[in-house]
Design brief:
Shape: rod-shaped
Number of helices: 2
Bound molecules: calcium ion
Helix content: 40-55%
Low-confidence stretches: none
Number of strands: 0
Distance between the termini: 63 Å
Largest sheet: none
Radius of gyration: 21 Å
Length: 87
């Protein structure tokens, strides 16, 4: 009789749980800052080179920010990791 209601309730609870997990894993951000710090030097309109970044992480953040295309030509071998020389 109430089995249908129970199933609906379980499905709704599962969706809420999945939502919470998604928020925790992908958007957990108590300070409201971007988890990936985009360096000030990063501009998608200007051609940048690895020399313009202090660290590989900065270059990577900029690459991902401007992506998916490698607008700056930072990833010569196309493996998705830019400026291996900075690591
Ligand atoms: Ca370049
Ligand atoms: Ca690479």
């Amino acid at each position: 009789m109430n089995n249908k209601l129970l199933i609906v309730l379980i499905v709704v609870l599962c969706m809420i749980l999945i939502g919470i997990i998604a928020i925790v894993f992908f958007n957990w951000n108590p300070q409201g800052e971007s988890p990936l710090a985009i360096p000030d030097v990063c501009s998608c309109d200007v051609d940048l080179n690895c020399d313009d970044f202090d660290t590989q992480a900065e270059a990577q953040a900029c690459f991902e920010f401007c992506g998916p295309e490698d607008v700056h030509g930072l990833d010569n071998d196309g493996d998705g990791v830019v400026c291996e020389s900075l690591t």
